[in-house]
Write a structure and sequence with these properties.
single chain, 136 residues, alpha+beta, Endonuclease, Chain A, 4-stranded mixed β-sheet, 3 helices, 4 strands
């Protein structure tokens, strides 16, 4: 016979099987590949000197896409220390020749973002073509 008092069992909290952010992220990678034929890398380290990572990168065309969360909620990207750290990262990125597209999470999967990716890729192709032909 069990003399332990009847204590209610804790309900198991099931973890979501899918992360919405991850699903959106994977969708972005697939859409860019489908629409522009470009391979997108998530969490790309663009310089070995620092531990910086880009939310998304298209290394073949030196395009960086950064998702800026917390724009309206005083998130990390809009508070002093985080804002300055992002400036340092973005300046280094620019000095290395990358194009940077900044979006909010709500704008990641929009036609405007895809258009900006396309425009940056076209600009990259134009610069490389003209550089190799001696037009510069």
């Amino acid at each position: 016979m069990n003399n332990k008092p009847n204590t209610p069992r804790k309900a198991k909290i099931s973890k979501p099987t899918r992360d919405i952010g991850s699903e959106k992220s994977d969708m972005f990678v697939k859409i860019v590949k489908s629409v522009n034929g470009l391979d997108v890398v998530k969490e790309y380290r663009f310089t070995p000197e620092r531990r910086w990572r880009l939310d998304y990168a298209i290394p073949t065309h030196m395009i960086a896409i950064e998702v800026e969360g917390g724009a309206f909620t005083s998130g990390r990207h809009t508070r002093g220390k985080g804002f300055i750290a992002d400036m340092e990262k973005y300046n280094e990125l620019t000095c290395l020749g990358w194009s940077l597209i900044r979006v909010t999470p709500q704008n990641l999967l929009t036609s405007k973002t895809l258009e900006n990716v396309h425009r940056c890729a076209e600009n990259y192709n134009f610069l490389v073509k003209n550089y190799h032909s001696g037009s510069f």
